[in-house]
């Protein structure tokens, strides 16, 4: 099967972005390189290599095992048979050990402490996943209630609603109703004026499910 014109243009843009990110890495502009890599991610195998490169930026340059684990795991999820899948899988055990050591400040851990840190790790991963999912910039000039609280949009009369339970995020709610966490953005936009609300959900809060 031949490539269409759009495919060729998309591939050229992707390769150009990788080259730009590499230049930024060479000049120690790590933040800029991360932004460039993230800008080309679209959840398809064609751009999965950016996840793999981001994994190395987080592990080798930023020394942040949580971010590295996220991107290596995303690479495997998007391109399980890709050319870098073996290396991405190999990092998992090493990265988890580094993360536990980082969270425990290098001190010996009891079984209870290890369990607690594992739970914290899971919460951190969930938060990171939520922020990656909702990374598209949104205007921050929406209405804000007194005390800095994020103001929620009115729920249409008779609309389908969901009451937030402990541990839920917009992604898990989207999976529940749409079987697709990618639609978390729709729920966010239907209920709030600002993307900041994604990290400020409250247990018992009612959301409009469009």
What this model shows, in words?
By secondary structure, this protein is mainly α. It folds into 2 domains: 9-133, Tetratricopeptide repeat domain (Serine Threonine Protein Phosphatase 5, Tetratricopeptide repeat); 149-208, Roll (Membrane-bound Lytic Murein Transglycosylase D, Chain A). The chain has 8 helices and 2 strands; from the N terminus they run H-H-H-H-H-H-E-H-H-E. It has helices spanning 5-26, 30-39, 48-61, 65-78, 85-103, 111-133, 170-178, 184-191; strands at residues 161-163, 206-208. It has a two-stranded antiparallel sheet. Helix 1 (5-26) packs antiparallel against helix 2 (30-39) and helix 2 (30-39) runs antiparallel to helix 3. It is globular and about 55 Å long. The protein starts with a helix and ends with a strand.
CATH superfamily membership of the largest domain: Tetratricopeptide repeat domain
Helix content: 55-70%
Number of extended strands: 2
Stated plainly, the CATH topology of the largest domain is called Serine Threonine Protein Phosphatase 5, Tetratricopeptide repeat
Please give the alpha-carbon distance between the first and last residues. Answer: 39 Å
What general form does the structure show?
A: globular
Using brief descriptors, characterize the structure shown.
210 residues, mainly alpha, Serine Threonine Protein Phosphatase 5, Tetratricopeptide repeat, Membrane-bound Lytic Murein Transglycosylase D, Chain A, 2 domains, two-stranded antiparallel sheet, disordered N terminus
């Amino acid at each position: 099967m031949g490539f269409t014109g759009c495919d060729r243009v998309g591939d050229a843009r992707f390769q150009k972005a990788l080259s730009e990110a590499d230049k930024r890495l060479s000049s120690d502009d790590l933040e800029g390189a991360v932004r460039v890599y993230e800008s080309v991610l679209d959840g398809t195998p064609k751009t999965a290599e950016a996840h793999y490169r981001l994994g190395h930026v987080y592990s080798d340059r930023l020394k942040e095992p949580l971010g590295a684990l996220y991107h290596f795991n995303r690479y495997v999820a998007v391109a399980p048979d890709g050319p870098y899948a073996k290396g991405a899988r190999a990092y998992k055990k090493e990265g988890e050990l580094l993360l536990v050591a980082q969270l425990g400040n290098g001190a010996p851990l009891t079984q209870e402490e290890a369990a607690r840190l594992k739970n914290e790790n899971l919460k951190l991963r969930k938060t990171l996943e939520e922020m990656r999912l909702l990374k598209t910039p949104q205007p921050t000039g929406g209405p804000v209630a007194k005390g800095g609280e994020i103001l929620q949009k009115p729920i249409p009369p008779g609309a389908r609603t969901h009451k937030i339970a402990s541990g839920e995020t917009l992604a898990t709610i989207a999976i529940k109703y749409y079987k697709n966490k990618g639609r978390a953005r729709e729920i966010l936009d239907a209920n709030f004026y600002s993307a900041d609300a994604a990290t400020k959900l409250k247990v018992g809060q009612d959301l409009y499910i469009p």
